Amino acid sequence: MDSLTPSDLFSPSKARQKRAQAQDWAHIDSWLSYRYAGRTVPMFERNEETLKVLRELSMANERADEERTALERLEREALKELDEVETHDDDQRILSQLRTSLTPEGEQALDALASTAVALNTPTANPEAIAHALIQHTTASQKLTNQFAHMQTLQRYLDKQQSLLRAQLHELHTKPAFTTPSNLQRQTTEQTRQVKHLRTKIREYEDKLSSLQSTHNRAMTPGSQHIASAEALSETLEQQKALDELRERVEGLEREVGEFAGLPADREAARKEVGKLEVRLDEVRRRRDELFEGLMGQQ
């Protein structure tokens, strides 16, 4: 095998090729040493053609070894099966002799014992072991029966709830009462604009009222505190009344807008949100009715 040259050190592909050849030659040397079993391996020319032939020869030899190993394992399994068949024949002979020696009642009892042991999958026909296995199977069967009954009850409850939800969903899709108004977004925008406008007016009137009160307080003398201008008082009362009306109107609009505060701006999304709230309302009402019916039943 040629050694690496300085030019190969700077060529990754050549370096990989040389490394692969070195590994192949190491495998061939190990294989030849194993085959010659301590004897001296004959000398031969080490080139790519020789490496290729030896590699194919070693692979063919390994396949032959694998086939021989598989054949030997198959022969061992066949011999084992033959031994089991002979043992089974002996068991059949013993069982036949035992049956001929038993009375009809004894043969029936033996069949019952064997059938029970097979059905319970017990490794022995000992009555105590069969009794323990029978108790375990009975306990497991009872647990499974109870679980199955519970699952059936749960299934019926889920079917009932599904029917109720489908009915509510159909009602939400068909009843006009649950339909979101088409102009909901426009109404919300208009009411928000009115609230902002009225809040500005309220601040203006409050500033005017504060200014009038300050002017009135400065104009009052200690001797004329009990004498007020009827015209100024009337104007002040009218402005106070108008201010109260505006405040009530703003509060009413804020309440109306607050009802739609949590809704999205998109009409379809707002409609879906209203539908969800209606479903929750129906659930709360139904829960209230159930509690009321339970209290009436207790009385």
UniProtKB/TrEMBL annotation:
Main subcellular location: cytoplasm
Cross-referenced Gene3D superfamilies: 1.10.287.1490
InterPro entries reported in the protein's UniProt record: HAUS1
Localization per Swiss-Prot or TrEMBL: Cytoplasm, Cytoskeleton, Spindle
Domain of life: Eukaryota
Gene Ontology, cellular component aspect: cytosol; HAUS complex; microtubule; spindle
GO terms of biological process kind: cell division; spindle assembly
Keywords assigned by UniProt, alphabetized: Cell cycle, Cell division, Coiled coil, Cytoplasm, Cytoskeleton, Microtubule, Mitosis
Coiled coil stretches, renumbered: 47-91, 188-287
PANTHER family (UniProt xref): HAUS AUGMIN-LIKE COMPLEX SUBUNIT 1
Family that this chain belongs to: Belongs to the HAUS1 family.
Protein name according to UniProt: HAUS augmin-like complex subunit 1
Lineage, top ranks: Eukaryota, Fungi, Dikarya, Ascomycota, Pezizomycotina
